[in-house]
């Protein structure tokens, strides 16, 4: 079994790793660290929570330890670009942990804080600069930061930077770097846009993948609960009230939604805090610190904050709403089952989120909703049909056709009388409906006379008519005779 001692790292780094409690490198670390030490460009694809951060931080520290150099003013030897403030802070914490027995100049440059202290920190020169794209470009435009002497650049969580629209900014940063440099690109997924970025800015990169792209780690127990929107809050409270909840992260789609969910949970007696882009940096740091210390049991977050929650001991991830981007599902549930532990991911799915669920299932290659009628009925019907004989099938189809014809006839009859029985009799002859008014004195609902009764009355009516005519003619002849007689 590989150990950190076999990876050729400097003694101060090994001492810090041992003190941090790590003895065996993860698969991504075992492969990426030697490639980075050999100054190769590297594309690393690994699931969230597999130790990607240490896989690029340790080789950077090793180069600083083995080739010490005083950094130039406003310059940095290594640049780490990351999508969120939280992730930048987590990477900086890792650097401090592994460089405990070294002298390393590090600074974090992110938005949401005053630029003055950042400019001052960069002015003296840095070994490692950790930055988000937007604030880094701001400092570059004012010449507060100079990348002309940068030897190593790391693009961490490249797929999330793409999702957040940072790729144009990343390209501008890459163009400002020296052509002779080492480039490392780390990602949990590898969309085409990221491959295009790698093709444009990397030299014959070594691609290292320790797991299929976009597949969550197997230690996460995933499940779906079909719940309508109006019932989601009650179901969420039931889930979070369980005794096995140690620490839970609840994900919503919007910042406003995160605030509302956190407020509702607090209202029912569950300790919860919200973390999202509208919170100040100090608020976000306090929320994470409270969650990490166990003071706050539940953290309600948006997707932007998802990658920065690198905290061991998260037992549950709850998707209060499914993400619009399928890849975000992988990153969300990756907040649990970290550092070799297991975890539980529960997603609440409303009827209008079924398409989002199917997109997620397609991405991860797993059916999360096995009880769905949409998945089960087709095979069941097919099995029943295979058990029927051809004669039974023919009879069943004939019955269906008769039933359909009867239903259509009833619909036509109803369509011909939209107002119902309102003093009119309706007779249907052939395909057309004719309306006939009631006869004088006829009562609504009086039974119709049969055809035979009508036919029997016709001869009697004819006899009466003939007798009347005969009497008229006889009277006329009598009057004529009386008139002409002398």
Automatic annotation (TrEMBL):
UniProt superkingdom: Bacteria
What GO cellular component term, any one, is given?
Answer: cytosol
Which molecular function GO terms apply here?
ATP binding; hydrolase activity; nucleic acid binding; RNA helicase activity
Q: The DEAD-box RNA helicase Q domain covers which part of the protein?
A: 2-30
Cite the residue spans of the region called Disordered. 367-486
- Residue span(s) of domain Helicase C-terminal: 219-379
Q: Where is the composition biased (Polar residues)?
A: 411-428, 462-486
Instruction: Report the family membership.
Output: Belongs to the DEAD box helicase family.
Which parts of the sequence form the motif Q motif?
Answer: 2-30
Identify the Gene3D superfamilies for this entry: P-loop containing nucleotide triphosphate hydrolases
Query: Which InterPro entries does the protein's record reference?
Result: DEAD/DEAH_box_helicase_dom, DEAD/DEAH_RhlB, DEAD_box_RNA_helicase, Helicase_ATP-bd, Helicase_C-like, P-loop_NTPase, RNA_helicase_DEAD_Q_motif
Q: Where is the composition biased (Basic residues)?
A: 431-449
Tell me which residues make up the Helicase ATP-binding domain.
Answer: 33-208
Q: Does the keyword Nucleotide-binding apply?
A: yes
Provide this UniProt record's keywords sorted from A to Z.
ATP-binding, Helicase, Hydrolase, Nucleotide-binding
Q: Give start-end positions of Basic and acidic residues composition bias.
A: 372-387, 450-460
Record-given protein name:
DEAD/DEAH box helicase
């Amino acid at each position: 079994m590989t150990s950190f001692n076999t990876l050729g790292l400097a003694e101060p780094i090994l001492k810090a790793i041992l003190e941090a409690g790590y003895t065996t490198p993860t698969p991504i670390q075992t492969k990426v660290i030697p490639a980075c030490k050999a100054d190769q460009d590297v594309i690393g694809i690994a699931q969230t929570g597999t130790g990607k951060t240490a896989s690029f931080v340790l080789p950077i520290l090793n180069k600083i330890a083995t080739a010490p150099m005083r950094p130039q003013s406003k310059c940095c030897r290594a640049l780490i670009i990351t999508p969120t403030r939280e992730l930048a802070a987590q990477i900086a914490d890792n650097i401090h942990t592994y460089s405990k027995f070294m002298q390393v100049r590090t600074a974090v440059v992110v938005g949401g804080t005053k630029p003055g202290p950042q400019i001052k920190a960069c002015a003296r020169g840095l070994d490692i600069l950790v930055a988000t794209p937007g604030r880094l470009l701001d400092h570059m435009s004012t010449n507060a930061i100079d990348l002309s002497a940068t030897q190593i650049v790391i693009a961490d969580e490249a797929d999330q930077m793409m999702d957040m629209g940072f790729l144009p900014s990343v390209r501008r940063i890459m163009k400002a770097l020296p052509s002779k440099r080492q480039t490392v690109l780390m990602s949990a997924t590898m969309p085409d846009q990221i491959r295009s970025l790698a093709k444009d800015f990397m030299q014959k990169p070594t691609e290292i993948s320790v797991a299929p792209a976009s597949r969550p780690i197997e230690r996460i127990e995933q499940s779906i609960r079909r719940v309508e929107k109006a019932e989601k809050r009650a179901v969420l409270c039931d889930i979070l009230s369980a005794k096995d909840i140690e620490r839970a992260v609840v994900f919503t789609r919007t910042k406003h939604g995160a605030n509302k969910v956190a407020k509702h949970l607090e209202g029912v007696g569950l300790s919860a805090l919200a973390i999202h882009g509208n919170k100040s940096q100090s608020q976000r740091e306090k929320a994470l610190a409270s969650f990490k210390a166990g003071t706050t049991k539940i953290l309600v977050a948006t997707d932007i904050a998802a990658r920065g929650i690198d905290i061991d001991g998260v037992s549950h991830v709850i998707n209060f709403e499914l993400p619009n981007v399928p890849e975000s599902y992988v990153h969300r549930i990756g907040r649990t089952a970290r550092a070799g532990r297991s975890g539980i991911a529960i997603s609440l799915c409303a009827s209008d989120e079924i398409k989002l669920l199917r997109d997620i299932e397609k991405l991860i290659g797993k059916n999360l909703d096995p009880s769905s009628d949409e998945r089960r009925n087709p095979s069941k019907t097919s099995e029943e049909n295979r058990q029927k004989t051809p004669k039974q099938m023919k009879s069943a189809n004939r019955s269906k056709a008769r039933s359909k014809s009867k239903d259509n006839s009833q619909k036509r009859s109803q369509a011909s009388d939209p107002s119902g029985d309102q003093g009119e009799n309706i007779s249907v002859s052939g395909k057309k409906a004719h309306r006939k008014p009631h006869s004088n004195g006829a009562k609504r609902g009086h039974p119709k006379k049969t055809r035979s009764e009508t036919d029997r009355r016709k001869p009697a009516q004819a006899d009466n008519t003939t007798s009347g005519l005969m009497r008229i003619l006889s009277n006329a002849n009598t009057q004529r005779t009386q008139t002409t007689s002398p």
